[in-house]
Amino acid sequence: MTIFTKSTLRLLVLALACLVFASGCASTPKQADLNLGYSLPKHQAKDVLKEDVRYPIDVYDPIEGFNRRAYTFNYYFDKFLYLPVVNTYEFITPDYVEDRVSNFVDNVFEFNNFVNNLLQFKLKETGITLARFLINTTVGVAGLWDPATGWGMPRQTEDFGQTLGHWGVANGPYIVLPIFGPSNLRDTTGLVVDSVAFSTVGPPAWVDNDDAELVFMGVSAVDKRHRQSFRYYQTGSPFEYEMIRMLYTSKREIEIEK
Amino acid sequence: MSARFHRLIIAAVILAWCGAVQAQAYDYPFPNPLVATVINTPAEYAAPLPADLPIKTATLQLFPDREVPGILWNLDELGYSYIRQKGAAPVVFLVAGTGASHQSPKMQIMQKAFFQAGFHVISISSPTHPNFIVAASTSGVPGNLEEDAADLYGVMQAIWQSLGDKMEATSFNLAGYSLGAAQSAFVARLDEDRKAFNFKKVLLINPPLNLYNSVKLLDAMLEENIPGGPDKFADAYDRIIARFAEAYAHGEKVEFNNQFLYSTYKYKAPENDQGLNVLVGLDFRLSSQNMAFASDVMTKAGYVVPADLELGRHDRVTQYAKVLSRLSFVDYFEGIFMPHFRAKNPTLTEADMIKRMSLRTLEDYLRTSPKFGLIHNADDIIMLPGEVDHLRQVFGDRARIFPYGGHCGNMSYPDNVAAMTSFFQKN
């Protein structure tokens, strides 16, 4: 990939980092009273909700209007493009081969785990990740198998969003990314940095073959959705958007704490 | 013969008898009913059920002219699932429990178990699930067992109309768990008059005896177990998440599912029942919240949403979720349910309605009809003391009461799966 020159890349990362820090300072604005100008419902927010009570369902979400639309877009994207492709893949590929593909993809992305464990000074985990990559690439035949896990070296998943979180960067506003799904400003920054690092200095740079990279990216996108059982609007809850927003936030909290 | 020899024989007989009892002992792993209800049956203890089955999902449009407000746009057609045998086979209709969809984990257990036992299986969401309220409920106000049963019956007929040519039925049967079991009893009663299916057998799994009693128990589990009271829910939530985080630090990935709950439990079992009560109560509160919102919006009841406000597809509704999170089932009963039924019949009292929300209204029928079977747990947490015994007495030898399992926690345990399928298989 040659879209990013080194200097524009540095600028981009810097800009995103600034945004993350700025967002960490902003506080949650009060939600406008939805009922203004309408007849009064039996149970009103002003009677039931108290100022000083925290609600886990409240997540800082200043661009909720955009996010809700992106959420719906993702549903349609899934329905008409992503899932049909994934279903076709699952239909023609035996489970055994699917698992080999997943292992292969995971092994290539060990690069990001390595870098982010290192950036968090998790030296043991960095060592395990390096050892995993070496073992699985050789004994595991280019990563198609994962003998390392069986030998007591489980995968040490870390991404740049977690690295930022580890060093105290707050979530920032919640963002529903088109196609990628739930995120926030910190994790979106992480995603961009991880992808840029991956393609400029990671495995694609070692191979330096644009076609191979393109194929790999396609395969990993299909593999990722194949392994993710979540389906938009399947919960049937009218508050699915809020529930996912809350659970995503908690899930990241749990992952960062590790 | 010497007395000693006699004693020896008696001892041998007693030992043999104990051995026989031992062989029948019920070894479900969680004697604590709250643990059972939260964790259910982890894969390592569960009956082996087929993983990849050709399960189909489809949708029905029951009220083509019904206008669905934007905020509920994705719920306007009723989803259901089915799986069919090759050739002729008996059909089982399944009805889900409170707030659950046709694809809920417990519905999948039943679906797989009955398919494996040779049945065509058709799974229907609970009349309290938002999708059912929006797409299939005549009144939009769930909770009246008789009305909900009539809606379910209509749905079953509509589904059969579209599946009838694809499945060859040798008989029709019915099974439900939790609230779905109570509704199934009413569906069966209705079928005695309408005779569209002539259900051969009907299985009730962990039904409440009185719906109102059970939901009050569930509401109390949440409200009375948060240290510092409901205002401190966020702290309780944080503690639960911290617990997950702690377990995850020793595990692999975060997925909010049963297996993850189980690894958290295995990592460190809770010191007391408080958190477990909160989890059970919270699960129920989330279902009630969804149900009340769908009902409020569909009937313009002015419960938490202003009656004259039409919420669009992308409107913010977090505030309503927060208000609903603080309201109980009794609030729904008084705020939406009673006004709806009183509008039709002004003399109706709360006591009348509560009485109707009970299997006791069908007691004579349940006592005498040979088509019923009951599977329940002696320690079910949604039952008041004596209620399980009452059901045991009503169903007599058609009842199978397990000593443990809490509320539906043991449904995929091998003995339970065997009890479910053998009920339909034996003649």
Quickly list its features:
heterodimer, A: 258 residues, mainly alpha, two-stranded antiparallel ribbon, disordered N terminus, B: 427 residues, alpha/beta, eight-stranded mixed sheet, 48% helix
Write the layout of secondary structure elements.
The complex is a heterodimer of chains A (258) and B (427).
Chain A: H1 6-25, H2 45-48, H3 64-92, H4 95-108, H5 110-119, H6 123-138, H7 147-150, H8 160-166, E1 174-177, E2 181-184, H9 185-201, H10 203-207, H11 210-227, H12 240-257
Antiparallel strand pairs in A: 1-2
Helix pairs in contact in A: 1-9, 3-11, 4-11, 5-6, 8-9, 8-12
Chain B: H1 3-24, H2 33-39, E1 56-60, E2 78-83, E3 88-95, H3 105-116, E4 120-124, H4 130-135, H5 145-163, E5 168-177, H6 179-194, E6 201-205, H7 211-223, H8 233-248, H9 258-267, H10 274-299, H11 318-325, H12 329-344, H13 350-356, H14 363-368, E7 372-377, H15 387-395, E8 399-402, H16 414-425
Parallel strand pairs in B: 3-4, 3-5, 5-6, 6-7, 7-8
Antiparallel strand pairs in B: 1-2, 2-4
Helix pairs in contact in B: 2-10, 5-6, 7-10, 8-9, 10-11
Q: Could you explain how this protein is built, in words?
A:
The complex is a heterodimer of chains A (258) and B (427). Chain A contains twelve helices and two strands; from the N terminus they run H-H-H-H-H-H-H-H-E-E-H-H-H-H. Chain A is mostly helical. Chain A has a two-stranded antiparallel ribbon with strand order 1-2. In chain A, helix 1 packs antiparallel against helix 9 (185-201). Chain A is globular, with a radius of gyration of 21 Å. Chain B has 427 residues and is an alpha/beta fold. In chain B, helix 5 (145-163) packs across helix 6, helix 7 crosses helix 10 (274-299) and helix 10 (274-299) crosses helix 11. Chain B starts with a helix and ends with a helix. Classes of the chains: A mainly alpha (258), B alpha/beta (427). Chains A and B meet through helix 3 and helix 12 of A and helix 8, helix 10 and helix 11 of B.
